[in-house]
Amino acid sequence: MIGAVPREGPLLAHLRAVTRPSHDALEDALGLDGALDLDAYRRLLARFYGFWTGWQPQVAALLAEERLTTPRRRLHLLAADLTASGLSAKDLEALPRCPLTPLQDAMAALGSLYVMEGSTLGGRVIQRNLERSLGALGADSRSYFNGYGPETGRMWLSFLARLEAAPAGAAVRIGRGALATFERLGGWLLPS
Hints:
Heme Oxygenase, Chain A, mainly alpha, globular
């Protein structure tokens, strides 16, 4: 059937089960479904930028699958959003950088990519909340949370196809990579 959503595969079911508590905890702690002012939004973008600066090349190197990783690069969207919100190239360079996520191999990197690809789906919900909270303020700095725009669903499905093609024995390593990503991202976005 054209346009049908594929059934959830065993690896996706495993990842959803093992990451659900981490996903829910980060989502609740960030509180992106509530009111957000422009300054808080800029700070959040800056923290995401600091994470992606190291994470994007790290995952690309570990996976060594340009056809998978190149279209999923989003650091440039954060840079554009921050520039649109008033930061200069020098300001971007001076932003703090997140320590790398402890990922040992390509399968852990695939789990990490699962987390960040999944965030494109949630980003669409955040985007609508930003429109409600901020109105026209910062409207030109919202490309990151828009994911891949109208292609977000297609990109997610193509990622799921790659995920389910992973070796059957890799589920634990993929899950560890996803959990390590949630832990690093949460610690970075919500510094104590």
